């Protein structure tokens, strides 16, 4: 028997792979465009949605960076974050560790403070309003050079007590983790947690580099690690968390049919997979939709859904006591439902 949608939506969960700029819904894009008098090359919400047909990561990134141009003020970032947390709360989300891309904003002339102050305000309000906790992960754009990421880390210095970790995103192929050795070492020296997108489009070698050179605490995506059996075994043995994003994988043609998605295989292999939305406004679903559609496509069992939910907390950067509370809440939910 398949697991009910209501059970999946309601199970307490954390989201560990979410680009806040990727939660910009077309309606909000028009609203910010009007309010900030920033032109966008679309006439209607339908036209925007129709443009979201991607054949690879770069196709998506081109339109995603263009969409981010409408974000101009702290209020915009605050509103963006609050809208995301409202949806997360409706999806059973109790915690999120959200990515943002400072260089996307500083490179078009915004001061470093605008995005981060707005996001921190939205995160604080969301906790008061919904009881949903959150952490912030500052990503470096890998298509830019390391000097740019070092400059970004320096700009973040006054905020380091409010940043949980750093990440690496944008165009993967041709931009290996090793390009960012020094900035990740500097981030580690400052006590920040380390994430990196690896093995989404890039080869297993990039996952090796993320482990050996960046010393990651989590691998974002990691799909292509499955091509390398020794690497897969290593990830299992280390208990390395993978932040897997099924609907993103489908939209960016990492998989061609959700039925071919490796989520079930990952769990059967003993990999510590989690289920996440990546850029939900662009990929057609928030976190619960990712769980539900994957469960339907590959036949996830109730126990596998519970494992994914538990992995989302044990793979988070929360303290041990908070993790234990969330695991207890999942056990109570599973007993009652
Ligand atoms: N991969 C790489 N960079 C990104 C992504 C992604 O899925 N989403 C936003 N930036
Ligand atoms: Zn991502």
Summarize the structure.
The protein is an alpha/beta fold and 337 residues long. Helix content is 51%, strand content 14%. The protein has helices at 5-10, 26-36, 45-51, 57-67, 74-90, 102-106, 112-130, 146-155, 181-189, 204-212, 229-238, 246-251, 263-269, 280-283, 287-298, 302-314, 320-336; strands at 13-19, 93-100, 133-141, 165-169, 193-198, 218-221, 241-244, 272-275.
Architecture overview:
51% of the residues lie in helices and 14% in strands. The protein is built from 17 helices and eight strands. It has helices at 5-10, 26-36, 45-51, 57-67, 74-90, 102-106, 112-130, 146-155, 181-189, 204-212, 229-238, 246-251, 263-269, 280-283, 287-298, 302-314, 320-336; strands at 13-19, 93-100, 133-141, 165-169, 193-198, 218-221, 241-244, 272-275. An eight-stranded parallel β-sheet has the order 1-2-3-4-5-6-7-8. Strand 6, helix 11 (229-238) and strand 7 form a beta-alpha-beta unit.
Contiguous uncertain segments of 5+ residues: none
Number of continuous helical runs: 17
Question: What's the number of domains?
Answer: 1
Structural class: alpha/beta
Query: Which kinds of small molecule does this entry bind, naming each only once?
Result: hypoxanthine, zinc ion
Q: What is the CA-based Rg, rounded?
A: 19 Å
CATH topology: TIM Barrel
N-end to C-end Cα span: 15 Å
Which superfamily, in CATH terms, is the homologous superfamily? Metal-dependent hydrolases
Average pLDDT works out at 98
Number of strands: 8
Output the keywords.
binds hypoxanthine; 337 residues; alpha/beta; eight-stranded parallel beta sheet; globular; TIM Barrel
